[in-house]
Amino acid sequence: MIIQKTTQPRIHNFDPKNFTFGNDFIDHMLICEYENGKWGEPKIMPYGPLGFTPAMMGINYGQACFEGMKAYKDKNGDVFLFRPEKNFKRINKSAKRLAMPEISEEIFMEGLKALVDIDRDWVPYGEGTSLYLRPLIFATEEALKARIATKYMFAIVATPVKNYYSEPISVKIADYYSRSASGGVGSAKAAGNYAAAFYPTKLANEEGYEQIIWTDDNTHEYFEESGTMNVFVRINDTIYTPPVSEKILDGVTRDSFIQLAKHNNIEVKDEPISVKLVLEAHSKGELKEVWGVGTAVVTNVFKALGYKDKKYNLPDLKEEESFSLKLKKQLVGIQTNEAEDPFGWRIKVEKKY
Ligand code: COI
């Protein structure tokens, strides 16, 4: 790995008490180029613009996928990654689905650890804070024939973050637009999945909803995801979450919530959830909580569901009554080294560079 450290660090201009999600970038980034059928040597270099033209295939035909993951700092200043092997596997699953070359475990893991190590001072410490890491792969070839590109870049950039959405939000259950389709790219973290969601989300925003609960493209009768998150529903004391499929992202936070819930002896049903089931439970007073989970948000509690022209308010549970907040607290405790990690999820970033 080539390491070229910056001579003009910006860390001293960064105010850890005053920043917003995803707007400040750490001093370095990792890049690695693919051509002639193989990945080259990864390079950590000062963060900054790269030279591409508008004829770059990735921005014309959308061969681009990414990951979202975080590094956390504990009270001793040690830095940890959370289940990074899941993101490594998933970026390759996404790359494969988009006909892009897979990245090696060595480039992904060693590159990630070295970048976080070099910029460890950028990992904020304090409640709800972390360093958000964005590995991505995109086609860099300059050509306009619609075909599989031959040149790519793997990059990792990172930004200090705080809670993504802090307040409970209202969400609209989709009855027309879809996030994914059978045989499509829903289970890949394809950049285009996010682009395609922006317009329906804008329409939902105009109706007073912050996000959408995506439903299946065929009947719109079953929950799939919510916004950029996986979705959970609690009916009485059972938690439901739609099973991962080719249409639903295999979320790392989703999997962690399921394992934590089981660890707490909470019944989890990883099975299709119909809109009908949820609204019937609401009318019987059995719908206790609905929430989204994802790396960026960790958990976002929903305060109301909108369906067709009706709004269904959800109970405002106290922290001690809420499964979502209890599981979130346990998860963040593990991520930030405040709690035991019975699952072996936390990986310490050793000081090497
Ligand atoms: C994540 O939770 O990492 C996501 O993918 C959301 C992101 C689009 C901000």
Question: Would you give the CATH topology of the largest domain?
Answer: D-amino Acid Aminotransferase, Chain A, domain 2
Percent strand: 25-35%
Summed up, the helix count is 7
Count of individual domains: 2
Shape: globular
Structural class per helix/strand content? alpha+beta
What percentage of residues falls in helices of 4 or more residues?
10-25%
CA-CA gap between termini: 12 Å
Report low-confidence residues grouped into runs of 5 or more. Answer: none
What is the fold's blueprint, element by element?
Layout lengths: L1 E2 L24 E8 L2 E2 L3 E4 L10 H5 L2 E3 L2 E5 L5 E4 L1 H14 L7 H14 L11 E10 L12 E10 L7 E5 L17 H16 L4 E5 L7 E4 L2 E7 L2 E3 L11 H12 L3 E3 L5 H9 L3 E8 L3 E10 L2 E4 L9 H13 L10 E3 L5
Parallel strand pairs: 1-4, 10-11, 10-17, 14-15
Antiparallel strand pairs: 2-3, 2-4, 2-9, 5-8, 6-7, 6-8, 7-19, 8-9, 11-12, 12-13, 13-14, 13-16, 16-17, 17-18
Helix pairs in contact: 5-7
GO molecular function, one term: L-valine-2-oxoglutarate transaminase activity
Catalytic activity: L-leucine + 2-oxoglutarate = 4-methyl-2-oxopentanoate + L-glutamate; L-valine + 2-oxoglutarate = 3-methyl-2-oxobutanoate + L-glutamate; L-isoleucine + 2-oxoglutarate = (S)-3-methyl-2-oxopentanoate + L-glutamate
Cofactor: pyridoxal 5'-phosphate
Structure report:
By secondary structure, this protein is α+β, with helices and mostly antiparallel strands. It is 24% helix and 28% strand. The strands form two sheets. Strands 1, 2, 3, 4, 5, 6, 7, 8, 9 and 19 form a ten-stranded mixed sheet that branches. A six-stranded mixed β-barrel has the order 10-11-12-13-16-17, surrounded by four helices. Strand 13 and strand 14 (238-240) form a beta hairpin. Helix 5 (252-263) packs across helix 7. The N and C termini lie close together (12 Å). The chain binds 2-OXO-4-methylpentanoic acid (COI). 2-OXO-4-methylpentanoic acid is lined by residues 68, 194, 228, 294-296. InterPro entries: Aminotrans_IV, Aminotrans_IV_CS, Aminotransferase-like, B_amino_transII, BCAT-like_C, BCAT-like_N. The modification N6-(pyridoxal phosphate)lysine is found at residue 189. Keywords: Amino-acid biosynthesis, Aminotransferase, Branched-chain amino acid biosynthesis, Pyridoxal phosphate, Transferase.
